[in-house]
Amino acid sequence: MFDVSQITEHMAVVGSDGQHVGTVDRVHGRMIRLTKADPAAAGEYRFVPLDAVDGIRGNRLVLRVAAAQALASGADAIPEARG
User: Fold this and answer.
1) In a 10 Å sphere around its CB, with 0-12 CB exposed, 13-18 middle and 19+ buried, how is residue 36 labelled?
2) pLDDT tens for the 83 residues of the chain, in order
3) Residue 78 falls within a domain, yes or no?
4) Rounded CA gap, 78 and 30, in Å?
5) What's the CATH number where 38 sits?
6) Phi/psi of residue 62, each to 5°?
7) What's the CA gap between 18 and 24, in Å, rounded?
8) 58 in a domain, yes or no?
9) How many CB atoms lie within 10 A of CB 7?
10) Which candidate, 54, 6, 7, places its Cα nearest to that of 32?
11) Which domain holds residue 23?
């Protein structure tokens, strides 16, 4: 378990396989926005849901899925709130 306040700007994000997914820009509600300057981002902001995070190890945010899966399913916009 981790505390959202432990997620810091420029923290590396990796998949469960240890491969690079991106770099934290900031937490936006229940989503983590990754920087668009990261080579993995292709110049666009990407978003990862907080519930996809397995934990924090050192200065790395580790996801519950492999990097390829996270990149393939990553949102490029914040999902609309459903009422």
Assistant:
1) middle
2) 678 999 999 999 999 999 999 999 999 899 999 999 988 888 888 999 999 999 999 999 999 999 988 888 765 555 544 33
3) no
4) 10
5) 2.30.30.240
6) -105, 130
7) 16
8) yes
9) 17
10) 7
11) 4-73
Q: Tokens 């916009």 identify what position? A: 77
24's tokens:
């934290």
Q: Starting at the earlier edge strand, list the strands of the sheet with 53-57.
A: 46-49, 31-34, 20-28, 12-14, 60-63, 53-57
> Mapping DSSP to helix (H, G, I), strand (E, B) and coil, where does residue 76 land?
coil
pLDDT at 55: 95
Measured in whole angstroms, the distance separating CA 76 from the mean position of its chain's CA atoms is 11
Alpha-helix runs per DSSP H in the chain: 67-73
Question: In whole angstroms, what is the distance from residue 12 CA to residue 42 CA?
Answer: 16
